[in-house]
Amino acid sequence: MENINYADFLIKPRSSWIKKSTTYLYCNLNGLPDIVKVLQKVGELQELWKTCFGHLLGIPKELTFSAGVLHNLLLRQIDVPGVTGANELHFLVGGKMAKFSQREFCLVMGQQFEVMLDIFLQPYAATKDGIHVRYFENDENRRLTDVWARFLAGGFDQPKDGLKMALVLIVNNVLFGQDLRRKVTLRFFKMVED
After folding, report:
1. Does 156 lie in the same domain as 91?
2. pTM value surpassing 0.85
3. Domain limits at 86?
4. Backbone phi and psi for residue 98, each to the nearest 5 degrees, phi listed first
């Protein structure tokens, strides 16, 4: 397969690429020092290190996520019949095919692939006596600013409540880069209770 022109297999042809675009990105690591301080005060920082997001605490502050780099990589996605397998992506990089599969994902993220939770198939219902009920009165219109303010105030009712709020904030802000004025993704309240 050395003489193949992989550009012929681009999923999105170069002629349809947008030449100039603007991306508004709120994804950053700026909130992590506050999360570390609060969790240190309540003795839950080591628990955060043990989660799948613990490695984020070791990222140098000067590093940033670049949506532009990711966008340009995805533009170069190719699908080569008979080569592209299940659960893997191929990209045209420097005229050569590069593969990103479950194996590479696991290496980068430090996670394992397991059966997907059915939590996304069920309608949201707050966990009885969970943090959404106890701290936010089961209000489905709470904004991320509300969660940040309550988290920074400390004084949690139960052990691991600080950790649970920190996980909601990390997923919403660091990973998904949601603007603090947005509503909290409610399913994350349920996921941190498990």
Report:
1. no
2. no
3. 1-27+65-114
4. -115, 140
Within this chain, do residues 69 and 47 fall inside the same structural domain, yes or no? no
Do residue 82 and residue 172 come from a single domain? no
Task: Give which of 64, 67, 70 is closest to 30, Cα–Cα.
Answer: 64
Per-residue pLDDT tens over the stretch 33-44: 889 999 999 999
Per the structure, the count of domains in the chain is 2
